[in-house]
Write a structure and sequence with these properties.
This protein has helices at 24-33, 39-42, 52-76, 81-103, 116-120, 124-142. By secondary structure, the chain is mostly helical. The protein has a domain at 50-142. Helix 3 runs antiparallel to helix 4 and helix 3 runs parallel beside helix 6.
């Protein structure tokens, strides 16, 4: 009786058949959605050409940072109620817009970025939720 091998095949380690290289169209699609590796060094430089994915990434994380800072500050200052929430929204929208327009020099009316409201609201509700959590925790732990 002879025994034949089962249905298991072994790939040659020198070839990677499991993950073929992306076609040029796939590579360009990835290039438009991926975040540039040096995006944080770019965030500190003025008047650069921004891709939408990089700009949205920076604005999103800027809002999260502001939410943490304002949450701690408002908790320590014992600010409460709707006026504090409105102040947070006004401060984060204002600071984000000033950073985007004055420091980065981004033309928010450029169709490449969508409308100016798309950029201004990027990450707004996530940062508002983070702000509320930090604000309530700081206020409760401090007083």
């Amino acid at each position: 009786m002879s025994r034949r091998g089962g249905g298991v095949s072994v790939a040659n380690p020198s070839t990677n058949a499991a993950s073929p290289s992306p076609s040029p169209s796939d590579a360009s699609a990835l290039a438009e959605t991926d975040v540039h590796p040096d995006v944080w060094s770019m965030a500190l430089q003025q008047d650069l050409e921004w891709r939408k994915a990089d700009l949205v990434h920076v604005l999103y994380w800027l809002r999260q940072y502001l939410a943490i800072c304002f949450g701690v500050l408002f908790g320590l200052l014992q600010l409460t109620g709707l006026p504090a929430m409105i102040l947070f929204v006004l401060l984060t929208v204002g600071l984000t817009w000033i950073y985007m327009k004055s420091f980065l020099g981004v033309d928010d009316e450029d169709e490449m970025y969508g409308t100016r409201y798309d950029l201004l609201q990027e990450g707004m509700w996530n940062s508002f939720t983070l702000f509320l959590a930090i604000w309530i925790a700081t206020y409760s732990l401090h007083f």
